[in-house]
Amino acid sequence: MHPTSVNGVDDMIRLGDLNEAGLLRNLLVRHKDGIIYTYTGSILVAVNPYQLLPLYTTEQVHLYTDRRLGELPPHVFAIADSCFFNMRRNKKDQCCVISGESGAGKTESTKLMLQFLAAVSGQHSWIEQQILEANPILEAFGNAKTIRNDNSSRFGKYIDINFTKGGAIEGAKIEHYLLEKSRVCRQAPEERNYHIFYCMLMGMPAEQKKILSLGNASEYNYLTMGNCTSCDGRDDIKEYAHFRSAMKILMFSENDSWEINKLLAAMLHLGNVHFEGQRFICLKDTIREERFICLNDSMIMFASIMLSCSVFHQAIYGRLFVWVVGKINKAVFKPPPEDTKYVRQSIGLLDIFGFENFNKNSFEQLCINFANEQLQQFFVKHVFKLEQDEYARENIVWKHIEYNDNQRTLDVLANKSLNILALIDEESNFPKGTDTTMINKMNQVHGKGDVYVPPKNNHDTQFGIQHFAGVVHYDSKGFLEKNRDALSTDLIQLVEKSSNKMLKQAFQNELSSNGEIKRAPTLSGQFRQSLDALMKTLTACQPYFIRCIKPNDFKKPMLFDRDLCMRQLRYSGMMETIRIRKAGYPIRYTFDEFLERYRVLLKSSLCDPKVVRRNVAVDIVVVVIVVDFHDTMLELERMKELNEKALLIQRVLRGYKYRRQFLRQRSSALVIQKNWRGYKGRKLYRLGFARLQAKVRARQLQHHYQQKRVAAVRLQAQTRGYLARKEWQRKRRAVILLQTNTRGMLARKQVKKMKRDMFLSAKERREEELAALERQRRLNQVLQQKKEKEASTQSESITAQEMVDDIFGFLPNMVGGQEGQAPAGFKDLEKQGERTRPEEVDLDDLPMVEDIPEEDYDDLDEYSFSKFASMYFQGAATPTHVRQRLRQPLLYHEDEGDVVASMTVWWIILRFMGDLPEPKLVQGQGARGLRGSNNSLDPDLALRQDRRLSHMVGLDQVRTTGVSPNEIYCQICKQLQENGNRSSFYRGWILLSICLGIFPPTERFIKFLQSFIRFGPMGYAPYCAKRLRRTVANGVRGEPPSWLELEATKSKKPIAVSVTLMDSRTISLPVDSSSTSKEICQLLSEKVSLKDTFGFSLYVAIYEKVWSLGSGREHVMDAISQCEQEVKRKGGQEQHAPWRLYYRKEIFTPWHDCKEDSVSTDLIYRQIIRGLRFGEYKCDKDDDIVQLSAKHFYVQYGSDCSLDNAKTVVQDCINSSLLEAKTQDKWLQMVSTAHAQGPYINSRQKAAGVKAEVVDYARQKWPLFFSRFFEAAKLSGPALPKNKFIVAINWTGITFLDEKERRLLQLSYPEVTGVNTMRYSSVINGCTVIGQFFCYVSVVILLPPLREGKKFGQSVSLLTLKGDFSLNAVMAGNIAELVHMFLGGLRERSQYAVALQEVNQDDPTFLSFKKGELIVLIKDDELTVGRGWIKGKNERTGKTGAVPTDAVLVLPTLTKPTNEVMSLLNLSPDQRKSIMAANQKETGTVERVAPVSLKEFSYEYFRQPIKDVNRQVISKNVAPERLWVKSREPIKQPLLKKLAGNSELILDLCVPILKYMGDYPTKQIQTPLELTDQIFGPATKDEALRDEIYCQIMKQMTSNNNRFSLEQGWQLLWLCCGLFPPSQSLLKHTQRFLESRRREPLAPDCLQRLQGSLRIEPRKLPPHQVEIDAIQQNSTQIFHKVHFPNDMEEVKSPARSFCFLKSLVCVTSFCLYVVQVLSLNDSDYFFDSLRQITDWSKKAKSVKEGGGPMNMSYLVFFMRKLWFNVSPGRDLEADLIFHYPQELPKYLRGYHRCTKEDMVNIGALLFRVKFNNDKSQFVLIPKMLKDLVPNDMLKAMSTTDWQKNIVAAYNKQASMTSEEASLAFLKVVCRWPTFGCAFFEVKQTSDPNFPDIVRIAISKQGVSIIHPKTKDVLATHPFNRIANWCSGSTYFHITVGNLVKGNKILCETSLVKTFITVLFVCLFVFIFYC
Known about the structure:
Pfam families: FERM_C1_MyoVII, FERM_M, IQ, Myosin_head, MyTH4, RA_2, SH3_2. By secondary structure, the protein is α+β, with helices and mostly antiparallel strands.
């Protein structure tokens, strides 16, 4: 005996004893060791073990995956893997022929192959499970128990499994062959009918059996003919459950299952029909036709009747089987696409009936054995014939191997003329043909041959055939009837009249459309055709063979029948197979294939593949043949060599990478070393020399200083002494002189008096008295004359005043800011029905501004107007009044236009003053109510009573001219000088007073004007002087005078305007024409005692418009004039303009502190509450509004929680839109709850503190709403999307906004390094702009000209770390002032500085730091900045010390600067410039790049333009169609060549694009979502359409002048770039298209999204509604609200990780959920998942309600998904936010099993969580018991007992907070085995022992099945036992244990996706940790 025969070998080719005995012994030895698989080269021999071996686990699947044949021990998985590997490697279809006798294990091998292919596909898809679950259905209908096999296949099947390019299963198709229908009516002894009957009777519920009148199997004839109704190896009840599960998986409906059961029951009942006499009684069947046929004994015999019934039953069962197979194929087969380029790869598995030789063999056995002959011939042909013929052709030295060729048998059976099957068909077609005539013909034709064995005599009906497995004798009785396989006409008509639809579907082929019967071909003909098709399929594939061997006939394990096995080996030709495999070369390659695959094994030095390839003749096909063993060895060596080459490449590349990195680092190190050494050397040299110099110079300076100091002290002493003495002497002399003169004067007076008294006589005294009386008389006379003169003057002045009153008589009496209704949004500040009474203010006593010093009139005497006229007037112009037109202006003007304008102004002034007559009235107009000419300014005044003063002259046009203000003032003064007409005189002074309030004269004329004003009429001189001073002080006005100013001109008093505060107070203030917002704000702040005045501004409002006047130099009357003009523009009366002034907070300082000023805080607080109510300030979350309302509740009413107060608060705080979204009761409940739970109630916090919290919240939440805005234009600086924008300055920084409030740039204050302003001049049309002259019909209003004839503006320069911006702004000075103030204030208060240089000090007193490091400043009294030192702390080292102030830069920030700011600060200016230059080369303005189009791309990839004959005829010279340019007509053909012919599809894409962009008119309005679905939906499924969409969008954006259309196109392109990228050929053109349009706001985002889409997988669905809404709002950041389990909300972008929203210790095991509750996969796109869910919801609801599309709401939750290693208390934040809110509902739903003690304890904990320590709520326990106790345990005790026990447990838990109670709850629950489980209520049909509804729990222990009522664990399956899983729409399937005989779990639930996601993640984590 050869050594190889002792223990056996894996491959029988390696046997030493190459004979039958050695072959048999090898199988015997391996069979005893439990090794059932053996190789014969690539052929697998499988011996049926008749027991379950541990060979088919998932570990075995993984072991044999991607391994070569022979690398591991023989296994059926190895054959399956070879099929899969060769299919993908050779791109050729594979097949596996599994042959053997009945009972050899062919069906099990087929199932194992399927299981492996499904597992190696690795998709866990539903189609894989459907293919696997087809076997239980096919076995139920097509398998039965026979003598040799308990699960014998009574039909053949070929399963063709289809794969994608990636190797994933995408479908399958099942072909069936020759079902043994006769078994339905007849069975041999000890055999059963088909399994389905027994399974149905054993497993069907009793209710259904009762409906179908079914009983046990022993009651039916069709099931008891073989005297066997049970099978020891099968559990019919369990098999029926599996059958039902498989039916559901394969989409059989409940109606289908019920109809099948009815047909099967009908057949069983028909089988029990019996006959008596001449009548028969038939049970009513499911055909619903009760038919009684009267039969004549002479016509039809009983036997014939029985035969007809049997044939009918067989036909029904056969057609039902065909229908079931068709239904399965419909579920699992996916038709190939129409694309001719699509190549489908497949693997075919052939499981056909084995060779049969019974005691009695019939027609079925003949067909079965004929099929086996065909397969044997296929095997012989491939293994022997073709191989040896190949050796002969190649002239290989070869000893021919003899083999058993069954070709002669096939010739007799089917190939030769008049073969046996042909004779049977021929005789079947004869109506009178019988079995006897058939056998006679066979004897006659084939009787003399050695293949056909004729009957022994003429009466014998048996004949024999010499098969390859031996002689088989067939009984010819019934051959023709079975071959005809036809039904009678009556039966077909009976089926046709049936009401059973399934029966008609089954017999559809037999029924014609007109009711005629179709003639069916013979059974043998059909079988031969199907076999021929099968042979063609197998021939086209690369075959593999599995030879199944049956070890014994008793179906017992470990029993090996030598004779039986030898017979099977012998007729299968195994001996010859071994010989040819051992000596032959079964593996063949062409030379090119072999060289291409194995050239890696060649040594190029010995054999160069390129040279060898050239040396081979082109016309000679070289074939390389290899032995199986050598092929395996070559493959292993190839893999080994490839791995080595890969390692070599990796090693070389890594070496190159690290060498290059090392060289770069070494070079850098050398540069650093060189520079450092040089620096150190220079530093040491300079330091030593500098120290020496310093010492010498210090000594010299010290010496000189000491000398100078001594001299200075001496000089000071002498000088001070001298000066002191001199001063003392001067004072002494002065005192002496003063005393002398005083004493002398007093003495002289005394002496004079004494002399007068002594010498004065009486007469003299009398004369003196008379002289005194005369002087008194004369004085009285003078006084009387003076009084008379004053009385006369007073009379004249009254007359003048009356004239003025008459002039201004049309003016209404009004207070500014009180006319009309309040503007929108401010009506609440005024009481309804009555006007708010302003606070009384004494306008005369209240100063408007600081006192302005009056002019020195003594200095004005020399500035007379006559003097100015003599000096500057032209020609003979006089300074006195005239009534003629001037020939030239008074002053010289260079510009001719100014000359004309000056003459026009003179004409207007003359008309205003009445010195020129008015134009005649138009005919038809009357002068009703006209006054006299002396008292009237205009004869048409009566018709103009409702117009302003500026309309009184009658000119109806407004003109703008450029005139010097000196010219205007000179003209007015000239007309006032020596004007004898009192009317004209007063009109002139009125005009002069109005002009003085609008603009001042130049410096050249101002002194002369002041001198002229002094001599004005009474009242006008001081009034005009004051207006002139105010105008000079506050600057020029920009608008014409308002009605209020005309009233002030009349009364010559300040204007009274009302200003409303946000607390509803209204204050009346005095203003004049020159009053500024700064003055008004100062008055208001003093009035209300406001200390923190910064940021409070004056606002003006009219209608819906509100704008800020700031608190600077803006003129208030200009704003009021604008309001009046707005009213006039809308057709209203200007004098009744409903404008209002408001005092509001506009901007905060970065260091704002609410505690500094309670008045300020209160005003801001009131403003915020109003803003909430009217929608000015909006919150992202409702909870924020509720909290603010609760705080307002507390501020207003304290702890009073009454309902009326709550209603008032809701009305004060909640916007009307929010009240519409939620009911008022809901808001009342939320606000009241928040107020009751607010911390300020228990802490009794002061209302001022709560107000401060609200103000701080608003400051942090809405910085942009508290900003100061300035319009600006960029002159130079880094590139921005737009050059004109709005600059918003607030406490956070500086923001550039476009007109749609999109952020263009945001700068924090640390990024701003400086700000300054500069003046500029502008010249328009070549002439200098001197000023603007507005002629509002009669009143001349001038905008001030600037000095020297030029108009100067200002620009502001912002110096930032991101580049320097030069901005042109009207209020550039305000910008610079505000930014400078913020920067200075921040630096004063900042605690952060950055080092400007490196300082190294050994002395610990000084701080050492490096350049660019952050220094934290410590402000104390130890060091002061004034001395040049400050105390600081190095953030890097943590050390503290003194820092020189010149070595650091204090950063303007109150918080720690970001890393971005620090990195920018550490860069040098050149580096920052280089970084900016990398993005944009800035040369004053943004450099424009010519837009790129698809013109270049179209030359190569676009189709040719369509030639339109009609268009060419109409326009002969028209240019050819440019396909890359926008068109308003839909294109008829695709743009790309590769899509030619798809015109309908392209039109469906083009029209929606045009509609979305607004370029195509449409009658039916479509939503943007519908259009984007039409545009992007097909492209997400078909990759070929993506380039077409890109091209069409960019085409429509090229040369598009419609801005709206272009913006819509950018939106489409933005969406497209985020969905999928273009192809490589289009990619560079798309990038260039976007890069050339960087100025567009969306272009950078499109580029960024395009780059991102290149790195990741394309999206699977069109855009979601949220994406479309965002981009339509021009927002590229998409935010979505995410909810947490504890009812908190966050608004974040889905692109960000939601794990960082909360400070969790562990961020793993969390995921997003969408309600309707579905778990989102981590790998899925967020919006794809949302789109899939919303689409499904819409479809389901629309189908349910029968409506159209609708919007579906959903919620996104962030929750814990995995509960591995969760320990309560380790992460308190996660416990409170996630663990407690997620575990509580599980507990209350009754998912856990717990004791009463635990429930009572937990109930007390839950009560404490809700109410904390509030024991007064005990009375609520009965009402809220469902929130404390599991729902299924509520009746375990009475309500009173529950309350009593919970209260007792609560009292034991004293001094415990609500958070501690939540944690205690988790600690109790975590002890239970079901803690952290994910529970699913499912319906199962797999195990009849389990209830229909079970609860599945997934935890770290595995998958548990729990009884929902008893909560008993019915089964637990650890993760390592789960072999496979998959899911469908509403089903999921799990295989536990062995792949073949393992437990199968099929469950139905709507949460399939969530279940599979959790299961997959748990399995992944389990595998990872294991």
